[in-house]
Specification:
By secondary structure, the chain is α/β, with parallel strands linked by helices. Helices cover 38% and strands 14% of the residues.
């Protein structure tokens, strides 16, 4: 780029992409959720939720739906701070209005408050292939096309090595849960990761939004493995929500429960972020599904066995 980049990233995954491409020092602002890699939390946050993010998953779901019913954006942008920072690159997304600030809102604020035109990069990661395409899109915008290709090749190489090894192993039937109350299965890139890790994905379709699901469907499918990865929740917070499931009368009869194969992952840091750390997400799944064959050191940090 001829002009020195002043980058604002409005979602955690794009912050990680920018940093992986070597532009951490060009970031001047972030979203309220950006917390990786270390140091980005020192940047000024430009977004905030319009709902209370504390409480139980059912309460959060109701608050978000109430905002959306009024045709409002779920997050607000600090327009005055954006005007002060005057970025020339803004990375946001148009994939999910619940996950990050609404794209139309970003455009509106930029048009009203920026003195010069900023290049807005809107990521739309519906599938794993889309994630790689988004990485390249950011690299191209930053003028480091070849660096983007190299990063993608390295990520794909690591993932393909895991997939090649996993495909020779037995395939447990896997149910993934992206929200606990109400129940939602993980879609988008997660079904692909499950298959690459050597599992048979039962719910959610690769490349499609995460679907709501009925408890009866889990009971009927009776998965071998149950992986819980609530969007935006770390392990401790997810464990606090598990009573919603364990209180179900059929819980103890599930095959995954009886065999001790229920796992809690840090969905917030890994599976919910469509960026470079989807490689670590795949490593976590490989460790969970085939612990005798994969050891990446994520146990106790990225995932735990649920014993409740």
């Amino acid at each position: 780029m001829a002009e020195k980049p002043r980058i604002v990233s409005l979602l955690p995954s794009s912050t990680e992409i920018v940093c992986a491409l070597g532009f951490a020092d060009a970031l001047v602002g972030r979203s309220h959720e950006c917390d990786y890699p270390a140091g980005v939390e020192n940047l000024p946050p430009l977004t905030a939720p319009k709902f209370n993010p504390d409480g139980r998953s059912y309460e959060i779901d109701q608050r978000v739906k109430a905002v959306l019913q009024e045709s409002l954006a779920v997050y607000r942008v600090d327009a005055n701070l954006l005007k002060t920072l005057q970025p020339n690159i803004i990375v946001t997304q148009s994939q999910c209005d619940v996950c990050a600030v609404n794209f139309d809102e970003v455009q509106r604020v930029c048009e009203q408050y920026l003195d010069t035109d900023a290049h807005i990069i809107a990521l739309e990661p519906n599938s794993l292939a889309d994630v790689f395409a988004d990485i390249q899109r950011v690299a191209d915008a930053l003028g480091v096309t070849e660096r983007g290709r190299q990063l993608i090749n390295e990520l794909q190489r690591r993932m393909e090595a895991i997939a090649a090894k996993a495909q020779t192993l037995p395939k447990p039937r896997v149910a993934t849960i992206e929200w606990i109350d109400p129940l939602m299965a993980a879609g988008n890139w997660v079904p692909t990761l499950v298959e690459m890790a050597g599992g048979e994905n039962l719910f959610g379709t690769a490349g499609e939004h995460s679907p709501w699901m009925a408890w009866d469907a889990i009971v009927a499918a009776d998965p071998d493995v149950l992986v819980v990865m609530p969007c935006g929740f770390d392990i401790d917070r997810s464990c606090m929500e598990m009573d919603v499931l364990t209180a179900r009368p059929e819980w103890q009869s599930l095959k995954a429960v009886q065999s001790g194969r229920v796992y809690i992952t840090d969905g917030n840091q890994y599976f919910n972020r469509p960026g470079p750390r989807l490689v670590e997400s795949l490593e976590i799944l490989a460790e969970i599904l085939h612990p005798e064959h994969f050891h990446f050191g994520h146990k106790g940090i990225g995932w735990v066995t649920f014993s409740g």
